[in-house]
Write a structure and sequence with these properties.
Order of helices and strands: EHEEHEEEEHHH
Oligomer: single chain
Radius of gyration: 21 Å
Shape: globular
Strand content: 5-15%
Structural class: alpha+beta
Largest sheet: 3 strands, antiparallel
Helix content: 25-40%
């Protein structure tokens, strides 16, 4: 049985609140468990293995001027704006089935891009406020990731690991007119 969480998906005006929720989650995960993790090794805990960030993206990452393996570790949970709900208690985050390790800021980049793709162009002020809220909720400057210095913007240019594309849509043949009368 699923619990009713709320009745409103987030929109562009909620970007900062969603970023703040990510910051709190990332800070808790880093403080409690991921502080000893590395982006180039899977993270194992009892009953859980989170895949590393670098292995499936190695070819693309070698061209970036960032020391990826040295960045503080958070996770990437597919931070699509549609995976956040407004509840009576604040923001609920759903859909953790594709969890991987990632640098701080990677989820923020996905959140910003998915919001813009869903609702249209965002203002610099909205993006900057989301970055500030993520950093504030992460609680420490050690985990800060400045969009203006290329992180996570550079990480957005890293292609996702290969996946099987959907097949091309099939066209149904046009109905053939029959000259035989129906009996």
């Amino acid at each position: 049985m699923f619990e009713h969480l709320g009745d409103r998906h987030l929109g562009p005006a909620d970007l900062d609140a969603a970023a703040g929720a990510l910051g709190r989650i990332h800070a808790a995960a880093h403080t409690q468990a991921l502080h000893g993790a590395s982006l180039d090794q899977p993270y194992a805990a009892p009953g859980l293995v989170i895949t590393d960030f670098i292995t499936p993206r190695a070819a693309a990452l070698q061209h970036l001027p960032l020391p990826i393996a040295e960045l503080p570790v958070a996770f990437y949970k597919d931070a699509n704006i549609r995976n956040f709900l407004r509840t009576d208690d604040g923001i609920a985050v759903v859909d953790f089935d594709d969890l991987t390790l990632a640098p701080f800021g990677y989820d923020l980049a996905k959140l910003i891009i998915s919001t813009a793709m869903t609702f249209g162009r965002l203002t610099i002020e909205q993006i900057d406020q989301a970055r500030q809220d993520l950093q504030h909720r992460s609680r420490t400057s050690r985990h800060r990731c400045d969009l203006h210095r290329g992180c996570p913007a550079a990480l957005l240019r890293v292609p996702r690991p290969p996946h099987r594309p959907l097949p091309a849509p099939q066209r149904l043949p046009a109905p053939v007119a029959s000259s035989t009368p129906l009996a």
